[in-house]
Specification:
transmembrane, 19 helices, elongated, Transcription Regulator spoIIAA, alpha/beta, Membrane-Transporter-like, 6 strands, transmembrane helix
C-alpha cells in the first residue's frame, strides 16, 4: 500500500518594496537637486551669520545639521531647512547683548518649545489662513528674494553684469533643450570655469566670509544653568520658535500645492524642533524652512527626503573638503539662480488685470497688506499675521451686514414679533440694540432667532440690553427659536455679563 504523497507548500517569495528614492533615475535627480541647493545655501548661510553677528561657521553648521536632521524628522519631503534670515534677525539682539553661547542655549530652548507646540496641535491653525494671505506670502517672498540679490549687483566690477546675463540665458534656454541636468548647476559650473580660466576678477563666494575647515563638535552651551539665564533667553527662544514654525508650515503648504501632495504638518512642527535642538548642541545658529532653496529643490525635480539629506551632506563636503574650489564660484552665478527662483515663485496670475477685476476687493486688499507689511519689515511672520488680521476685520465687516431684523404685529395688536436672520457675533450684534421700537411696541414682544445663531458673549450682552430696555417700560420679552448651541450659550451667559448695582 503506497503512502499518499505529502504536498509541500510552495515557498512564496516575499518582495520588499524598494523606496522610490533608491531608483537610479530618482536618486540621480535628488542628488543633482541637492547639489544645486547646497551651492545656493553657502552664501546665504554666510550672509545670515553676518546678520546675526556670529562667525560664518555657525550659519554653515546650522544649514548642515538642520537639513540632515529634518530629512529624517520632518513631515514634508523635499523641503529644505537651514539657517535663515528671519531667525538671524530674531536672535541678533541676544548675540549683541550676551554672546554666542546664549544664542546656542536659545536655539536649544526654541527647539524644545517647537516640539511642545507641535504636541499642542499648533499645525492645525494652518487651516485658518485665507488663500489671499497665502498668495501675499508667496509674492512677498519672491520680492524679498529678489531684493536680497541687489547688494551683489551694486558697486561691483562691470563683468558681473554680462556673467549674470549669460547665467540667466543658460537657466532659461537649457530646460527647453534638455532637463537631464539642472540648468542652475550647469550655469554655476560654466561661469566658475570661465572666470577661473579667463582670470576675470569678480566677487566670489570666498569674499563672503571664511569657510570652516572642520566638522561641527557636540557640546553643551556654556551658560549658567540659572533662572536668570532662562529669563534672558526665553523671550528670544519663544520668538524664534513661533517665527520658525510659521515660515516652515507656510513653506510646507506651498510645496503641497506645487507637488499636489499632502504633508504631515504636526510631524513637520515636531521635526523642526528636534532639528533646532540638535543644531544648538552642535554649535549652529538655528533655522527653519527656506523657501528660496526649497523652490530650487522642487523645481529641479526633487520629491523625496533624499534631496534634503544630500543637500546637507554636500554642503558640509563642499565647505570642509572642497572649500578652496567653492570659494572660486562667482556670486553672479548664485545671484542668477536666486533671481530665477524669485521670478518662478511670484504668482503673476494674482496681479493680472483680469484677475484684479474679477477678484473681490477685500481679497486683493488682504493680499496687498500681506505683501506690504512683509516687504517693509523683511519678516514673513509679521506679514502673515498682518494679513490674517486684515482678513478677519474685512470678513467681520462683511458678515456683520448680513444680519437683518424684520417685525410683524400680531392681529390682536398685543404682540410684536421680531424675526432675526444671520450670524450674531460681536461685529453684527452691536447694532442689534437699535433695531427695536421700545417706546412704540405693545405689551408683549417676541424675538424669533430661528434663522440666527448666537456665537459669542457680545450677542448675549446685546440681548440682555434689549430685554432690560423693554422691561423698564413694562414690556414682556420672550426669546424663541434658538438652536441647541445658541440656547446653551444664552442660558450660560444671560444675566451674568454685567455686575449688579
Amino acid at each position: 500500500m503506497s503512502l499518499p504523497a505529502v504536498s509541500r507548500p510552495r515557498s512564496r517569495r516575499v518582495r520588499l518594496r524598494r523606496p522610490a528614492w533608491l531608483s537610479p533615475r530618482v536618486l540621480r535627480t535628488e542628488a543633482l537637486s541637492g547639489l544645486v541647493v547646497a551651492l545656493a545655501l553657502i552664501p546665504e548661510a554666510v550672509s545670515f551669520s553676518i546678520i546675526a553677528g556670529v562667525d560664518p561657521r555657525l550659519g554653515l553648521f546650522a544649514s548642515f545639521t538642520m537639513a540632515v536632521t529634518i530629512a529624517f524628522t520632518g513631515g514634508r519631503p523635499a523641503m529644505i531647512s537651514a539657517a535663515t534670515g528671519a531667525i538671524a534677525l530674531v536672535l541678533a539682539p541676544l548675540v549683541r547683548g550676551h554672546g554666542v553661547e546664549y544664542l546656542l542655549a536659545a536655539v536649544v530652548l526654541g527647539g524644545l518649545i517647537q516640539v511642545l507646540l507641535a504636541v499642542a496641535g499648533v499645525a492645525r491653525l494652518m487651516r485658518f489662513l485665507p488663500r489671499s494671505v497665502m498668495v501675499g506670502f508667496v509674492n512677498a517672498l519672491a520680492i524679498l528674494i529678489f531684493l536680497a540679490q541687489l547688494p551683489y549687483l551694486i558697486d561691483v566690477p562691470w563683468p558681473v553684469y554680462p556673467l549674470l546675463g549669460v547665467g540667466l540665458l543658460v537657466m532659461i534656454g537649457l530646460p527647453k533643450l534638455t532637463k537631464a541636468v539642472p540648468a542652475p548647476l550647469v550655469a554655476i559650473v560654466a561661469l566658475t570655469t570661465f572666470t577661473v580660466a579667463a582670470g576675470v576678477a569678480v566677487p566670489t563666494v570666498g569674499d563672503e566670509g571664511e569657510l570652516p575647515d572642520s566638522l561641527p563638535v557636540l557640546g553643551i552651551p556654556a551658560v549658567p544653568l540659572t533662572f536668570e539665564t532662562l529669563t534672558i533667553i526665553a523671550p528670544f527662544a519663544l520668538a524664534m520658535a513661533l517665527v520658525g514654525l510659521m515660515e516652515s508650515l507656510m513653506t510646507a503648504k506651498l510645496v503641497d500645492d506645487l507637488t499636489d501632495t499632502h504633508s504631515d504638518k504636526t510631524r513637520e512642527s515636531r521635526g523642526q524642533g528636534i532639528a533646532n535642538i540638535v543644531t544648538g548642541f552642535l554649535g549652529g545658529m538655528g533655522g527653519c524652512a527656506m523657501i528660496g532653496q526649497t523652490m530650487i529643490n522642487v523645481k529641479s525635480g526633487a520629491r523625496t527626503r533624499a534631496s534634503t539629506f544630500l543637500a546637507g551632506v554636500f554642503l558640509l563636503v563642499l565647505v570642509v573638503a572642497l572649500g578652496e574650489i567653492v570659494a572660486l564660484i562667482p556670486m553672479a552665478a548664485l545671484v542668477g539662480v536666486m533671481i530665477m527662483v524669485a521670478v518662478g515663485t511670484f504668482d503673476w496670475h494674482s496681479i493680472h488685470p483680469k484677475t484684479l477685476l474679477r477678484m473681490p476687493k477685500s481679497e486683493t486688499t488682504v493680499m496687498l497688506a500681506t505683501v506690504a507689511v512683509t516687504v517693509a519689515t523683511h519678516n514673513l511672520a509679521i506679514g502673515v499675521i498682518a494679513g490674517v488680521l486684515v482678513a478677519m476685520v474685512l470678513f467681520a465687516r462683511r458678515v456683520a451686514h448680513l444680519v437683518s431684523v424684520d417685525s410683524v404685529l400680531d392681529p390682536d395688536g398685543t404682540t410684536r414679533i421680531y424675526h432675526v436672520t444671520g450670524q450674531l457675533f460681536f461685529a453684527s450684534s452691536n447694532d442689534l440694540v437699535f433695531q427695536f421700537d421700545y417706546a412704540g411696541d405693545p405689551p408683549n414682544v417676541v424675538i424669533d432667532l430661528s434663522d440666527a445663531h448666537i456665537w459669542d458673549a457680545s450677542t448675549v450682552a446685546s440681548l440682555d440690553a434689549i430685554t432690560t430696555k423693554y422691561e423698564a417700560r413694562g414690556t414682556t420679552v420672550t426669546i424663541t427659536g434658538m438652536n441647541p448651541d445658541s440656547e446653551q450659550r444664552h442660558a450660560t451667559l444671560a444675566g451674568n455679563l454685567t455686575s449688579a448695582h
